[in-house]
Amino acid sequence: MFDTVTVVGVGLIGGSFGLVLKERKLAKKVIGISRSKESIEAALRLGLIDETLELSQAVAKSDLIYVAIPVDATVTVVGEIMDMISGNQIVADAGSTKYALCNSINGHPMRRRFVATHPMWGTEFSGPEAATRDSFAGRSCVICEREQCEEDALLTIEEIYKTLGMHLVYMDAASHDMHAAYVSHIAHITSFALANTVLEKEKEEDAIFELAGGGFESTVRLAKSSPAMWAPVFMQNRENVLDVLNEHISQLKKFKSCLEKENNDYLWELMVNANKIKRIIK
Amino acid sequence: MFDTVTVVGVGLIGGSFGLVLKERKLAKKVIGISRSKESIEAALRLGLIDETLELSQAVAKSDLIYVAIPVDATVTVVGEIMDMISGNQIVADAGSTKYALCNSINGHPMRRRFVATHPMWGTEFSGPEAATRDSFAGRSCVICEREQCEEDALLTIEEIYKTLGMHLVYMDAASHDMHAAYVSHIAHITSFALANTVLEKEKEEDAIFELAGGGFESTVRLAKSSPAMWAPVFMQNRENVLDVLNEHISQLKKFKSCLEKENNDYLWELMVNANKIKRIIK
Predict the structure, then answer these.
(1) CATH top-level class of A176-280
(2) Domain spans, chain B
(3) B90-93 vs B167-171, strand pairing mode
(4) May I ask the CATH architecture of the domain A2-171?
(5) How confident is the model at residue B267, as a pLDDT?
(6) Residues of B in contact with A196 (CB under 8 A)
(7) Contacts of residue B252 in chain A, CB cutoff 8 Å?
(8) Quick check: B99 pLDDT over 90?
(9) Does the CB of B251 have a partner CB in chain A at under 8 Å?
(10) Do A213 and B121 touch (CB under 8 A)?
C-alpha cells in the first residue's frame, strides 16, 4: 500500500485510477494535478483525489506518480518528473503511444524508476465525470520495455494492475505503437471520419437520430472522443497510423469497386473474409 | 389479435417477431417458413413459431404474412404472396431497403393490402438463435408509402409496432433508402472494411484479441453481420451507398492528408467537427 500517490491528469483514466486506489485502500492519499481548475474541483467533489498541489510539491511527497494526460504533454511532463525524483519513487504513465515517450527518457539517470504502461480500456467520454470504479477490470494492460525497469518498480506496478483485475501483456515500445495503430487508433480515425461523412451527407438530423438503430451508433461511438487526447496520439504514431489508414482506404475501394461493377461474388468474398473477425472477437 | 400469422424467414427479425407476437398473445398461432430445415427446427425448439407449412398453405390460413428475409428474395416472395392473398389479408415486410420492393408491386391489384416497413434494429447476429423478446422496444420503425395502404391494413401494422414499443416514422421509399444508406448501410461497409484492414495488417491474432479494448470491438461489431442479409442490401441500394461511400473515402483522405503534412490544426478541426455527432446521438 502506498502512502501518497500523485495522479497527473484527473480525467477518464487518471481520475478512475485515483478512485480505485482510494476505494481499494491501495493509497492513503491521492494528490491530483491538472491545468484545469474545473477538473480539479470536479475530481475533489467526486472523490477521485484528496487534494491538489503544485507538481514539484506533489512529486516530493509521493511514492508513485501516475501520468495520464495527452501523449504529447506526457513526454514533457514525465521528463520533468524524472528530474525531480529520487531512487525510491516510481513513475508510470498510461498513454496510448509508447515509442516517443520511452525514447525521450532513454539514458535518463532515473530511467529504471519509470514503468511505461498502457491500460487498454477507454470510453468515448473524457474528464473527471467520466471516471468509473470498474474501469480496469477484465481488460489488458500493455507494459513496454520492462527490462529497463528496476525490479521493485516493475513488480509494484504489475501488482497494482493485477489487483485492478487487468491482464498484463509485454511488448517493446515500437511493437506496441504498431499494434495499437492497427487495432485501436485506426478504429478512432474511421469513427471520426464516419461521423463527418454522415454529418456532411445527412442534412436531416432527425433522420440520423431516428435511424441510428440500424448500426450507426456503435460504429460512430468513438467519434465523440476528445481531440485533445487523440490528435497527439495520431501525430506521434503517424507512420503506423498512415500505414494502416492507407490499407483501410484501399479496402473501402474494394467495396466501391464491387458496387460500381455490380460484382456480387467479390462483394460476398470481402464480407465472408471480414466475418473471420468473429473467430478473434466474440 | 390475430388468429394466424405467417413469418417468412425465422431469423433475427422474423424469429423475434414471431416470439413477441406469441408472448404478448397478439397471435394464436405463428406459422414459420424457411428454406432451411435447420432454421425451422431451431425456431420450433425455441418457441418462435408453432408449426411450418408450404408457403401457399400458410398464406391461405393467415391474417398477416410478415416477410423478413434478404431484400432480393423479399421482392420475389412478396410478389408471390400478393398473388395468393384475398382482400382481408395483410402482408408486411421488414427489409432494410424499400424502393425496389415498393416499385415491384406498384399497380398490383392487392397493393393496398401491403405495408412496407423497416423496424430499425438489429444485431450482428443472425438466425433463429439470435431472436430476442425485447428486440423492437424503444427503436424507430419506418413505414413507407402509407398512402398506398388500405386504412385497416395500415392501422393494424401500426398498432402491432406500437404495442411492441416502437416509434413510427413515415417516409417515401426513395427517401428511406437514401437515409438508410447514410446512417445504416455505410456503417456496415466501414465495419466490414475495418475488419479486413486489421486482418490484413495485423497478422498476430493475439494482439487483436488483447488490444481490442482500445475501441476496436464496437467499431468492428457489424463486420460479423451476415453477407446473405447485407450483400443484397448494398446491391439494391448501390447508388445511395456508392454516393456516401465516396464521401467517406474522401473524409478518410482528409485525415490522411493531415498526417502526411503534419497539419495539426486541420486534424483538430476534423475531430471537433466529428464531435458534433454528440448533439444527435447521446
Answers:
(1) mainly alpha
(2) 2-171, 176-280
(3) unpaired
(4) 3-Layer(aba) Sandwich (3.40)
(5) 98
(6) 251, 254, 270, 273-274
(7) 189-190, 193, 245, 248-249, 252
(8) yes
(9) yes
(10) yes
